[in-house]
Design goal:
Blueprint lengths: L2 H34 L7 H25 L6 H6 L1 E5 L8 H27 L4 H23 L6 H6 L1 E5 L10
Antiparallel strand pairs: 1-2
Helix pairs in contact: 1-2, 2-4, 4-5
């Protein structure tokens, strides 16, 4: 494993911890609404869609803004001296490219997991729910596997035309 791959994994864990804090805050609010009876008429499909809208969408947009913005990095990448750039060329990435990258990285696995949950909770269950849950785990696994071999770029980096470069840890701006 390259040092950049190790730093990317550590940066991902930092970012994941921040995402989990957001998800816990949203979950606490949802639990309060559920126990108060405010969501009594909302079924499993509605709750899962609301969860996607309240957690997945804001996190995906937040990562997009951070990576396409001034610092070109999420908090984890910024702390560990990593920046997201366009491949080939190394220019800053556009908002669209950043959105595609983060939708593939985060939105797709969460969407698959939510669809599996919805399928299981509305009674369809069975093989479809298990396939969805398996894909929700397999997709991030494939991402990590692709990071650890070859050029150190993940599948979503290849698909979005991006790469992660190294700078000095804690440095706010990448050297141009």
């Amino acid at each position: 494993m390259t040092s950049t791959a190790q730093r990317r994994l550590r940066a991902g864990l930092i970012d994941l911890a921040l995402m989990l804090v957001w998800a816990l805050l949203v979950g606490a609010l949802a639990l309060g609404l559920l126990t108060s009876g405010a969501l009594a008429g909302v079924g499993p499909l509605g709750l899962n869609l609301a969860g996607m809208a309240a957690v997945v969408l804001p996190v995906t947009i937040g990562l997009t803004v951070l990576e396409a913005g001034r610092y070109e990095a999420t908090p984890g990448k910024l702390k560990l001296g990593l920046r997201v750039r366009r491949d080939p060329g190394g220019e800053r990435i556009s908002w669209g490219r950043s959105f595609v990258r983060n939708l593939l990285k985060l939105g797709l696995p969460w969407l698959l997991l939510h669809l599996a949950t919805i399928t299981a909770t509305i009674g369809a269950g069975g093989a479809a729910a298990w396939v969805g849950a398996l894909l929700a785990v397999a997709v991030p696994g494939a991402y990590v596997g692709s990071l650890l071999r070859g050029d150190g770029r993940t599948i979503y980096d290849h698909l979005a035309g991006t790469m992660v470069i190294s700078t000095e840890p804690g440095r706010r701006f990448a050297a141009d």
